[in-house]
């Protein structure tokens, strides 16, 4: 669970840095195996974080 929380914390930090100019690099960082998304549970959690961010900040939905 500690590892899960760390992955979710890093994902939130990455999403807070999201801009159109930084999208490609941040998407690559998130997709990199070293980011730590190595289970269906973590993948689902990250997807929910991204979805929640899109709902909270509709200006970035197109990204």
Given helix and strand content, the structural type is mainly alpha
Unreliable stretches:
none
Number of strands: 0
> Tell me about the biggest sheet?
none
- Which range best describes the helical content: under 10%, 10-25%, 25-40%, 40-55%, 55-70% or over 70%? 55-70%
- Average of per-residue pLDDT values: 92
Overall outline: globular
Nearest-angstrom radius of gyration?
11 Å
Number of structural domains: 1
Cα distance spanning the termini: 29 Å
Number of helical regions: 3
Percent of sequence in beta strands:
under 5%
Order of helices and strands: HHH
Descriptive overview:
With 63 residues, the protein is mostly helical. It has one domain (2-60). It is built from three helices and no strands. The chain has helices spanning 2-16, 23-31, 40-56. Helix 1 (2-16) runs parallel beside helix 3. The radius of gyration is 11 Å and the shape is globular. InterPro entries: ARM-type_fold, MIF4G-like_typ-3. Belongs to the eukaryotic initiation factor 4G family. Keywords: Initiation factor, Protein biosynthesis.
Tell me briefly what this model is.
The protein is mostly helical and 63 residues long. It contains 3 helices and no strands.
Features:
protein biosynthesis; single chain; 65% helix; mainly alpha; MIF4G domain-containing protein; 63 residues; mRNA binding; 3 helices; translation initiation factor activity; initiation factor
């Amino acid at each position: 669970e500690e590892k899960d929380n760390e992955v979710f914390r890093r994902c939130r930090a990455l999403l807070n840095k999201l801009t159109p100019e930084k999208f490609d690099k941040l998407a690559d960082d998130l997709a990199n195996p070293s980011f730590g998304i190595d289970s269906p549970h973590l993948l689902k959690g990250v997807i929910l974080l991204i979805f929640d961010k899109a709902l909270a900040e509709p200006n970035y939905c197109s990204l």
